[in-house]
Amino acid sequence: MDNRNLFAALRAAFPKNLDAIAVETDTGLNYSWRDLERGTAMIANLLQSLGIEPGARIAVQVEKSVEAMMLYLATLRAGYVFLPLNTAYQKAEIEYFVGNAEPAVVVCSPGNFGWVSKIAFQAGTQHVFTLGEDRNGTLLQRAAQQSDQQTPVRSADDDLAAILYTSGTTGRSKGAMLTHGNLLSNAEVLKDYWGWKEGDVLIHALPIFHVHGLFVALHGALLNGSKILWFGKFDPKKAIGRMAEATVFMGVPTLYTRMLAEPALTRAAVGNMRLFISGSAPLLLETFSAWKERTGHTILERYGMSETIMLTSNPYHEAEGERRGGTVGFPLPGVGVRVRDEQGKEVPAGEIGGIQVKGPNVFKGYWRMPEKTKEEFTADGWFRTGDVGKVDELRYVTIVGRSKDLIISGGYNVYPAEIEGYINDMPGVAESAVVGVPHPDFGEVGVAVVIAKPGAQVEPEQLIATLKSQLANFKIPKRCFVVNELPRNTMGKVQKNLLREAHKALFA
Ligand code: MCA
Ligand code: AMP
What we know:
Layout: H1 6-12, E1 21-25, E2 30-32, H2 33-49, E3 57-61, H3 66-78, E4 81-84, H4 91-101, E5 105-108, H5 113-122, E6 127-130, H6 138-143, E7 160-166, E8 174-179, H7 180-193, E9 201-204, H8 211-223, E10 227-230, H9 236-241, E11 248-251, H10 253-260, E12 275-278, H11 285-295, E13 300-305, E14 309-313, E15 330-331, E16 336-340, E17 353-358, E18 365-366, H12 370-376, E19 383-391, E20 397-402, E21 407-409, E22 412-414, H13 416-424, E23 429-439, E24 443-452, H14 460-468, E25 479-483, H15 496-503
Parallel strand pairs: 1-10, 3-4, 3-5, 5-6, 9-10, 9-11, 11-12, 12-13, 24-25
Antiparallel strand pairs: 1-2, 7-8, 8-18, 13-14, 14-15, 16-17, 17-19, 19-20, 21-22, 23-24
The structure holds methylmalonyl-coenzyme A and adenosine monophosphate.
């Protein structure tokens, strides 16, 4: 059997000259390919020295740093399962993930050690390390004592590599189990499809706790042995400032609209660039056109999910077709995409229905939720994405909406059901509905509409402040209205479409 360990495959693509620069950070640090090789070996050795079982989860909530990236690679290298957590998550959120995934190791920011370690130890985690954005913390102190030689473990396609938690429309978050085979096959397809070539340099400006920054961008560059210009945090001016040295950029639509607001974004500034890729949220046609007009580049939009990694993409090579704004392109090679109506019947080309997918990229299931997993697959093994769309005669896929009640804000998913649960638990609240409305910066943001209990007084500002103390900041509705009643259909169900319509111009 070939070794399908993802790290081993990425390592095999490192350039011959290991002293060349692999990563250059916005804080002026340079890491060679040898540094990545040695650093990941040392962290892998540290993890293996703990005597934890193969397949154990390594949960990580740390600020973006090259060492955090090395911790990810080391986890793969040592045969454990990486569990990245958004840095915005607060106590209740972390408590749930740690309780559910039962990680053997938790790595957190030094400043959060007090509360995170308490949660971890209570959940039975044996090892808690810290890792700061400035190379401080106990993880690196301990790793520094390890050998810089390590043989990557052998992995099969089906072995778990990562668990990504995605919220559910009902109930709690589900951990999507991704295997070495899922990640590697998808990375190999994209390397070819997006025409990665020698001399490519990637601007990496996304967080590394979700599919886009952690897998699509990172694997893309590493599997091509390409240098990365690394940004701890996205800054439109700085990103544009480095484009003369780069060739590939990946971002969520908000990154593109923020760069368009910069006068420094000119044809000359992007003259060296080969490819701009957008995904994670719908790219407005307006942004697509404005970008083309200003830079001469046609953004390539693609579509994916935590459960499936990348599914479709507009073509890179002209011979395969044009990049069409408003569409997410063609199913990737090896990926099946079909559209079904509510009865499960195939709809004709160009007609709208639920998007279902199949392929080596599709996840293994939800962590310890066999029933939920079963619900999301059809009897013939296709995964229901929850996205609503169409495939035209030319095979272009267009997403027109979602059957799942989900808001995508600045590329982050926000599930109204989760926010409503917190609001409904507040004293004085009878009921609430959270809906997504258009927003010029984040694409879409949440708005809460709340009914108070008879005789109770609910203050919108107070409600927002309470939510801020409980939940990740990007989940907080940007506005709150207290009303007497919510619009309902004859079944008594809240008509969220009417609320969206009523508030659609709030941020216009
Ligand atoms: C920050 N804020 C937000 C968001 N981000 N509000 C709504 N939605 C957001 N996404 C709010 C904070 O709550 C805070 O408000 C204020 O903005 C400033 O916070 P800060 O962190 O400084 O914001 P920022 O640095 O300007 O961040 C904006 C951002 C960031 C750069 C667009 O959200 C980002 O990096 N988004 C990318 C997400 C991503 O990588 N998604 C890929 C998912 P206050 O002060 O009131 O608290 S992977 C995926 O979806 C699939 C699989 C795929 O296809 O890729
Ligand atoms: P996540 O749960 O974070 O993996 O988000 C996956 C969801 O993001 C998908 O089911 C889509 O609804 C959405 N998404 C990703 N890429 C695009 C895109 N290019 N256009 C529209 N929606 C997208």
